[in-house]
């Protein structure tokens, strides 16, 4: 596959705030893939995206799009890349249909084609009934759907989505993911910034994990999972919070994760599964809880790598 974006040793500093948002990031994005940028708040993901869109300039390093240096030819970006922003500030004074229609016109579509595309996209995102409403009066979730529609106008070959499913209910989130995957099947290259690791796992080809301005992992999901595939994830669900607190205390030296008030989680080596289950069966005589064992997910990989490689190889129980 061809290379769409080539990011070479990108560093972005903000001297006035004594912040280095990106630290020597190297990344290639391939034609036709869906790649997700994952990382905690403040990791440097959005800063990197803004540099890829030419909205801010890197302190050092270079970014090429289809081989073109975007600092020398910023217009090349708008011709080839659509960007989903988290908040459509520029269009809030327009009606819903106007925002889509004028976006189509700006992309070079004819008047008749723009009208057809407006109808098609409003139907696709389920906002036909709101076509005459002003965007400023819509809910946060509806505004995000409008941003999705605007990203799709002109049928761009590269699309960047920054947290596209925030503030959406489960039905609308699925709709957005379905739209994104369909555009990818049609040939578009998709770049995602998201915190929803579980949902991202269902659609992405590769994952780039960024933390403290650095790229700490880059690979396919299967390859990333392989790093911890000798472990199983164990979830303990207690009958009430008091029991969960007691279990958490018993597991404290094994660094359990507190998922909810009633649920804790940790990873164990596969060869330790039998001993751990025996241990849990013994605890079951004292406490009311359920447990389940599942293979590691992308979320497990993310949680272990977002702060760099873990210090211990095992965080399971010992019999």
UniProtKB/TrEMBL annotation:
SUPFAM superfamilies xref list: P-loop containing nucleoside triphosphate hydrolases
Keyword vocabulary terms for this entry: ATP-binding, Nucleotide-binding, Transport
GO molecular function: ATP binding; ATP hydrolysis activity
Pfam assignment, any one: ABC_tran
Tree of life domain: Bacteria
Similarity-based family: Belongs to the ABC transporter superfamily.
Name this protein carries in UniProt: Uncharacterized protein
Organism: Rossellomorea marisflavi
């Amino acid at each position: 596959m061809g290379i769409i974006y080539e990011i070479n040793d990108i560093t972005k500093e903000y001297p006035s705030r004594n912040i280095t948002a990106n630290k020597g990031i190297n990344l290639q994005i391939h034609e036709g893939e869906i790649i997700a940028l994952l990382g905690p708040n403040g990791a440097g993901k959005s800063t990197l995206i803004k540099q890829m869109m030419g909205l801010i300039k890197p302190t050092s390093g270079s970014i090429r799009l289809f081989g073109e240096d975007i600092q020398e030819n910023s217009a090349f970006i708008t011709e080839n890349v659509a960007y989903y922003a988290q908040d459509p500030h520029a269009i809030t004074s327009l009606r819903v249909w106007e925002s889509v229609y004028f976006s189509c016109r700006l992309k070079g579509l004819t008047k008749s084609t723009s009208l057809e595309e407006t109808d098609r996209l409003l139907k696709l995102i389920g906002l036909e009934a709101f076509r005459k409403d002003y965007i400023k009066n819509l809910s946060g979730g509806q505004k995000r759907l409008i941003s999705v529609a605007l990203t799709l106008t002109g049928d761009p070959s590269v699309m960047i989505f920054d947290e596209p499913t925030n503030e959406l209910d489960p039905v609308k989130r699925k709709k957005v993911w379905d739209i994104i995957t369909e555009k990818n099947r049609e040939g578009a290259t998709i770049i995602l910034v998201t915190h929803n690791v579980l949902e991202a796992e269902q659609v992405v080809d590769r994952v780039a994990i960024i933390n403290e301005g650095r790229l700490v992992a880059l690979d396919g999901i299967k390859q990333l999972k392989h790093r911890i595939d000798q472990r199983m994830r164990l979830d303990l669900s207690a009958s009430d919070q008091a029991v969960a607190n007691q279990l958490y205390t018993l597991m404290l030296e094994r660094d359990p994760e507190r998922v909810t008030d009633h649920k804790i989680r940790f990873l164990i080596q596969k060869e330790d599964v039998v001993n751990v289950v025996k241990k849990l069966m013994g605890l079951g005589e004292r406490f009311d809880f359920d447990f389940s064992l599942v293979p590691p997910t992308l979320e497990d990989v993310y949680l272990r790598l977002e702060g760099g490689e873990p210090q211990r190889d095992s965080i399971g129980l010992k019999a």
